[in-house]
Design brief:
DUF4439, 61% helix, 4 helices, Ferritin-like_SF, Ferritin-like
Length: 159
């Protein structure tokens, strides 16, 4: 189970960073955007606290949050805030991906649900359909897919 504790620790580190980032977004936005950021902040704080409990329950010691985190951008406009929120949620999806491969079935389910929530939050900030399989080499876009399947070779005729 030490592998699960390590995976939980990675997810916890990501949650610490997300809480920091959403605090900054919330401080720099107003209205509906601030409301979404506050909801995301609360969701990440709850996940952070759950992860701490999971780690201590498995005999590990959860890492504390850093005083500050380096962010890909500091939001100065609503568009920047949305861009940062979408990046945070993409990072959270990646952070939980390793936990989905863990040893404990309950943790795998927990991580899968956390990933689903991250994708839903990202969509709430910027409704857009992303790449079906991001990072997959040679993934064809729908526009480049053939309209009909290739013809099958004809069967030899007897003669």
């Amino acid at each position: 189970m030490s592998g699960d504790v390590e995976r939980l620790g990675k997810a916890l580190a990501a949650e610490h960073a997300a809480v920091f980032a959403y605090g900054l977004i919330g401080a720099r936005t107003t209205g509906a955007l601030r409301s979404k950021a506050t909801q995301a902040f609360d969701a990440h704080r709850a996940r952070r606290d759950q992860l701490r409990t999971f780690i201590t329950g498995r005999g590990g010691r959860p890492a504390e949050a850093e005083a500050s985190y380096s962010l890909p951008l500091v939001p100065s406009t609503p568009a920047d805030a949305v861009r940062l929120a979408v990046q945070i949620e993409a990072g959270m999806t990646a952070a939980y991906l390793e936990l989905v491969a863990g040893d404990d079935a309950a943790l795998r389910k927990y991580a899968a649900l956390a990933m689903q929530e991250a994708v839903a939050r990202s969509y709430a900030f910027r409704p857009a359909v992303g790449t079906a399989f991001p990072g997959m080499p040679g993934a064809a876009s729908p526009a480049s897919s053939p309209a009909s399947p290739p013809a099958s070779p004809s069967a030899p005729t007897g003669g």
